[in-house]
Amino acid sequence: QVHLVESGGGSVQAGGSLRLSCVASGNTYRYCMGWFRQAASKEREGVAVISGNGRTKYADSVKDRFIISKDTAAKTLSLQMNSLKPDDTATYFCATTNYPCGIETLDTRNFANWGQGTQVTVSV
After folding, report:
1. Can you tell me the distance from the alpha carbon of 30 to that of 67, in angstroms, rounded to the nearest whole number?
2. Which of 88, 89, 115, 90 has the alpha carbon at shortest distance from 33?
3. Which residues are paired to 23 by β-bridges?
4. Contacts for 95 with CB less than 8 Å, ≥ 6 apart
5. CA-to-CA distance for 10 and 3, rounded, in angstroms?
6. Helices (H) and strands (E) in the chain — how many of each?
7. Are 52 and 59 in contact (CB under 8 A)?
8. 10, 20, 91, 115 from 41: Cα distances, Å
9. Helix, strand, coil tally for the chain in percent (to 5)
10. CA pair distance 70, 79, nearest whole angstrom
11. Residue 73: which pLDDT band, with cuts at 50, 70 and 90?
């Protein structure tokens, strides 16, 4: 059983930055880990993922602005978010697969373990 706890959300003006963190407990060895978000009245979508072998994939909407990273020893996943836009406003979730994963994917259906989410609000 993997337990995930996110932190780092908050309110920021457009153009600002935030850093999200997710601490995992339980076995996550070579699992895919990722960040997803859900805005009001919208479906949950993939933002950035990192595979078990360290390859990354980003949604087109956040490329060149967000950076995902993982500290395997600390079981911590991070998301550095720069040049934030009002459209980035959402609840952000950390998630993992429950198997070793070598192919990075933004498909939510591949992720079985989810955190409780942290709110990010970007104002104009």
Report:
1. 19
2. 115
3. 5, 76
4. 4, 33, 34, 35, 36, 108, 111, 112, 113, 114, 115
5. 22
6. 0, 11
7. no
8. 20, 23, 12, 20
9. 5, 50, 45
10. 9
11. confident
> Rounded to 5 degrees, what are φ and ψ at 108?
-60, -25
What are the structure tokens assigned to 79, written together?
């998301």
Structure tokens at 40: 């009001």
What token pair was written down for 84? Answer: 């934030």
Helix (H, G, I), strand (E, B), or coil: what is residue 61?
coil
Residue type, 7: S
pLDDT digits (tens, 9 = 90+) for 7-50: 999 999 999 999 999 999 998 889 999 999 999 999 999 999 99
